[in-house]
Design goal:
By secondary structure, the protein is an alpha+beta fold. It has helices at about 145-155, 175-185, 190-200, 220, 235-250, 265-275, 285-295, 340-355, 430-445; strands at about 5, 15-20, 30, 35-40, 45-50, 55-60, 65-70, 70-75, 255-260, 305, 310, 320, 320-325, 325-330, 330-335, 370-375, 395-405, 410-425.
Length: about 450
């Protein structure tokens, strides 16, 4: 029996997603619960599991293609089953824009008109609404060369990027190609390796061969760095991060406050909790619990910009920036004001683990009022983070380090941590943010209060 695999709707705001990678291939046996593919939404890359048993008969939507939710992306059935023609229909290709006529350069260029999202979209993260761009044959740096030099380089399989020009204004001319050929005449290299070096712009003089008598092999060139850098195409995750944070940094008026937090009592407090209990408490968990008290003291911080109004959120939902290979994601601990420190620790650990395994749904990335981004484990003292779109603030947390501090006219060594708050000036003001930070500081100075029942 034929079963349709559709692009699932994994969150309330999810309308489309991009096929990032097919884990199963056509002809593979599929069991219930097997991971079929990875998709990328406007928030994260997630795994999609199979609800059916059988064989993956056909993949309708290939990698890198964006389709709306509920669109058929593959077919599962029994080997040899015929797929109805109305099912195996690929998504419609995006309409191509008509080429624009060339324009003469105006005598005085008009000022560009800034583009802004509509008020309805300003309160939510910006989605990536396009598939990955096709590769463009442009090197990071352009080597200027004469037609004869380019023709000669093409004939001899010489990467023009590896040459240094001796012509006017550093232009590469034919004798530069000849000089390079003389220097490489004694280089032992396979024809395949030479072709790859030519196509990738690799200087074979800088490649160490692993073959017999030092001969340069295909693998040697494949692992070499191109002469003028390597173009790395954007993954769907990196494109989403670029879109969202570019929008935030461009359109959200950030302001910044820094404050040193005394962690002298927090360090032994956390150690004592972890030695006495079975649940590991992190510094981020302690910060989340402290933020609850800060939100209660400064409720205006729990807000979002709607374009023509400000949303006051009913619950305290705190995101935690999690680093992944190739990007980062922000799972959200919901209703933190109703949870104990241990409950926060359990939920945040579960979210982080499942986020790294791509097991979360988009709902678990939504609704945050503030994000905690902690780089202290990398020995970062302080940094200025960019607000996650849809939120009004983000906390940049540095490392805990011993510093001399003046207390009651005496110098003492204290465990200190610098926190930077980036705020959205459309929804919150400096005094609100300062009150918020001060309350966090007070709570960390006396961490026992964080154990009180919410």
């Amino acid at each position: 029996m034929i079963s349709k695999v559709i692009m699932p709707k994994l969150g309330q705001t999810m309308e489309k997603a991009t096929v990032e990678k097919w884990i199963k291939k056509e002809g593979d046996t599929v069991a219930k619960g097997d991971v079929l593919l990875e998709i990328t939404t406007d928030k994260a890359t997630l795994e999609v599991e199979s609800y059916w048993e059988g064989t993956l008969l056909k993949i309708i939507v290939g990698e890198g293609v964006e389709v709306p939710v509920n669109h058929v992306i593959a077919v599962v059935g029994q080997p040899g089953e015929e797929i109805p023609a109305d099912i195996a229909v690929p998504p419609p290709a995006p309409a191509e824009e008509a080429p624009k006529p060339a324009r003469r350069a105006p005598s005085a260029a008009p000022a560009p008109t800034p583009t802004r999202p509509s008020p309805a979209l300003a309160a939510v993260p910006i989605a990536s609404s396009h598939a990955p761009a096709p590769p463009v044959a442009v090197m990071p740096e352009r080597a200027f060369s004469s037609p004869r030099a380019r023709r000669r380089a093409e004939e001899e399989k010489v990467a023009i990027e590896c040459l240094t020009g001796s012509g006017p204004n550093g232009r590469i001319i034919e004798r530069d190609v000849e000089a390079y050929l003389e220097r490489t005449a004694a280089v032992r290299i396979t024809p395949t390796a030479r072709e790859i070096a030519f196509r990738r712009g690799v200087d074979i003089l800088k490649v160490r061969g692993s073959g017999p008598s030092g001969r340069i092999m295909k693998a040697d060139v494949a692992g070499a760095v191109p002469a003028r850098g390597e173009r790395v195409e954007l993954t769907a995750m990196r494109r989403v991060i670029a879109d969202r944070l570019s929008y935030s940094f461009r359109d959200v008026p950030h302001f910044y406050l820094m404050m040193d937090m005394d962690m002298t009592k927090v360090v032994p407090f956390r150690k004592k909790l972890n030695e006495a209990g079975t649940i590991r408490i992190s510094f981020n968990d302690i910060l989340m619990r402290a933020c609850v008290l800060a939100f209660e003291a400064s409720p205006g911080m729990n807000s979002a910009w709607l374009g023509d109004a400000i949303l006051r959120r009913p619950d305290i939902n705190i995101g935690l920036a999690v680093s992944l290979d190739g990007g980062l994601i922000v799972p959200v601990v919901k209703c933190v004001q109703m949870k104990t420190l241990e409950q926060i620790a359990l939920e945040s650990a579960d979210l982080v683990t499942r986020a790294r395994g791509k097991k979360l749904t988009p709902d678990e990335f939504e609704g945050g009022c503030l994000t905690i981004s902690n780089l202290g484990m990398f020995d970062v003292d302080a940094f200025v983070p960019i607000i996650n779109p849809g939120e009004s603030a983000i906390l940049g947390v540095g490392r805990i380090t011993d510093k001399p501090v003046v207390i009651d006219e005496k110098i003492e060594i204290r465990a200190m941590m610098t926190v930077t708050l980036s705020g959205d000036h459309r929804t919150i003001d400096g005094a609100q943010a300062a009150t918020f930070l001060k309350k966090i500081k007070d709570a960390l100075a006396e961490p026992e209060m964080l154990l009180e029942q919410p």
